Amino acid sequence: MSCCGQKRRVLRDASRIPERAPAPQFPSLQNPALLQHTGASSLIVRGTVTRHAYLFGPRGGAALAVDERDAPGLMATGLFEAQAG
After folding, report:
1. What is the pLDDT of residues 29-39, one digit of tens each?
2. Three-state secondary structure along the chain?
C-alpha cells in the first residue's frame, strides 16, 4: 500500500532538470598535418607521441588533421598519405 508521500516524492524526482554532461575536451594539435587513410575501412589509431586517438574514415574520405609529432609514426605504417593543407 502506497502513501501520498511516496507519490509526491516520485513527482518531485521526475520534475528535476537533469544536469548537463560536460562538453567533450578535444586535444589541441601542435602544427596540424593533414593525413589521408588509404585503407578500405575505417581505422582508429593512437598517436605515438601525444597518445591522442584519431578516427580515420575509409579511402576517399576526408583528410584528418593530426598533431605534427604523431605524423611521422603514422606515415611509417604505410597506411596514410600526406595531404596539402
Report:
1. 999 999 999 99
2. CCCHHHHHHHHHHHCCCCCCCCCCCCCCCCCCEEEEECCCCCEEEECCCCCCEEEECCCCCCCEEECCCCHHHHHCCCCEEEECC
